Amino acid sequence: MLQSAQNRRILVADDSRAQRQMLALQLSRWGYDVSEAGSGQAALALAREHEFDMVLSDWVMPGMSGPDFCRAFRALPRENYGYFVLVSAKSGKSAVADGLASGADDFLTKPIDPAELQARLHAGERILRMQAELRRRNSDLQRLYGALQRDLAEARRLQLSLLPEPVIRLGAGEATFLMQPSGHLGGDLVGWFPLTPDRIALYSIDVSGHGVAAALMAARLAALLSGRSPEQNIAFQEGRPLTAQQVVDRLNRLLCADQQGDLYLTMVYADVSLADGLVSLVQAGHPHPLHLTHDRCPRQIGQGGFPVGLIPDASYAAINLRLHPGDRLIIPSDGVTECPGPAGELGDHGLAALIRHSAALRGTVLRDALLAGLSRHAGTVDFPDDISAVVFDYRPALSA
Questions:
Q1: Quick one: residue 157, left, alpha or beta (phi over 0 = left, psi -120 to 50 = alpha)?
Q2: With contact defined as beta carbons under 8 Å apart, do 285 and 333 qualify?
Q3: Is the model's pLDDT at 145 over the cut of 80?
Q4: In what order do the strands lie in the sheet with 173-180?
Q5: pLDDT score for 67
Q6: Which CATH number is 218's domain given?
Q7: What separation in angstroms does the CA of 300 have from each of 121, 148, 269, 296?
Q8: Is residue 145 part of a domain?
Q9: How many CA atoms lie within 13 A of 234 on its CB side?
C-alpha cells in the first residue's frame, strides 16, 4: 500500500469496463477510494459532484476525449489541486506534448505496468502534499496579514487621535490643520499648544521615511510637544517657555543623543503672539512657510536650515515677522510642495497660487479646498506622500 494513499479519492475514466475494473482493483489494494466512469462526460459529471485528488483518464473515449475531459476538469471550481494522468497507447513526443498541453500532469502508455503506475502516483502524491503545504502556509500568511491589517488600522486610529481638531479658535486667531497620511501610518505631525495666555506655539513636522518607525517617532514627538503636560513639554524649562530657537536646538540635541536608527525630521516651529501678531519662527529643513498679506500676495519665509536629528552641533536661527489683521501664515509639508502631477511637482509657486485662490475660505472649507486643489494637480486622491499643513489666520476681531 502507498503510505500516502489513505483517504485519497481517485477517478478512473475509461470506456473499457475491463480496463477500469483492473485499475480500480489495483488502486483499491493500494488504499485509494476509487470511483469509475465509462466516458468523459460521465467522469466530468462525477468531478462536478465530488472533488477527486487524482484522475486516471484514457485518451480515446467516445464523445469526449481524455484531453478534452482534462481541459474541462481544469476549468471546474476547486479548492484543492487535482493531479491528472492521461493513459494512451500513443507514446510519441507529439502525443505527450499534446496531452501535457491539455493540462495533464503526467502520461502513461498502455499496457500499464503496475510499478510504473505506482511511481507516477508517488509523484502525484508529492505534488499534492506540496500543494497542501502551500495552501496551509498561504492560510497562515493570510491570517497574519489580516492581524497586521487590524493592528495597522488601530495604530492609524490612535495616531490620528494625537492630532488636533481640524479647526481651532485661538483667541485672536484661528488655526486650520490639514493631515492626510499616504498609507496606514504617517510620519507627519501638526499641532499647537499654549505657551502663555496670549502666546501659542504652532508646529509642522515631517519624520523621514514612512511606516511604523516614522509613526512611532511622530508619536514620541507628539508627547514631547503636548500641551496637556507642560512639565514634560520640551518647549518649557522650569515652567517657562523657551524661545523658538531654543526649542529646536533642544530637540536636535535630544534626537542626536539617543538616535537608534537613521530617522531624522524636518520641522517649522512658530511662537505666535496673539496680542500683537509677532511671530518668531524656526525653519529646520522644512518647506518654506508662506505669509499671505491682505493684498493676497504670498511671501516666502526662511532660508531652509538643517534637519533635526542629523548634526549634533547644528545651529538654528529664528525669523521674526509680524502678522497684521487679515494675514495668513501657511506651513506646508513637502508632501504638499512636492506633490507630483502630469506637469511636474506643485512647487512653491503652485502652492502660492493655490493659497491665493483659497484666500477667502476658512476652516474645514479651506481644508477641503486645499485637498481638492492638490487632487486636481496630481490627478488622483491617492497621494504618494503624507499631506499636512498648518494654516493660521490672524484676526484680532475674533477675540474682541
A1: alpha
A2: no
A3: no
A4: 167-170, 173-180, 387-394, 328-332, 290-292, 298-300
A5: 93
A6: 3.60.40.10
A7: 76, 42, 16, 13
A8: no
A9: 20
Backbone angles phi, psi at 37, to 5 degrees: -145, 140
Task: Judge if 71 and 207 occupy the same domain.
Answer: no
Asked whether residue 1 carries a pLDDT value surpassing 70, the answer given is no
What pLDDT does 226 receive? 86
The answer to the question of residue 147 being in a domain is no
The pLDDT tens digits for 35-55 are 999 999 999 999 999 999 999
Residue tagged 511637482 (cell numbers): 345
Q: What SS3 class is residue 286?
A: coil
What pTM was estimated for this model as a whole? 0.67
pLDDT at site 2: 45
Q: Which residues contact 216 (CB under 8 A, 6 or more apart)?
A: none
**Claim to verify: residue 235 and residue 116 sit in the same structural domain:** no
Q: DSSP of 335-389, one letter per residue?
A: HHHT---TT---HHHHHHHHHHHTTT--HHHHHHHHHHHHHHHHTSS--SS-EEE
- Give yes or no for residue 151 having a pLDDT over 80: no
Range of the domain at 89: 3-136
Burial level of 162, CB count in 10 A (0-12/13-18/19+)?
Answer: middle
Give the three-state DSSP class for 321: strand
Crossing angle for the helix pair 66-74 and 93-101, nearest 10 degrees? 30
Q: What are phi and psi of 196, to 5 degrees?
A: -145, 175
Whether residue 298 sits in one domain with residue 224:
yes
| Mean pLDDT in residue range 297-315 | 90
pLDDT of 400 > 60? The answer is no
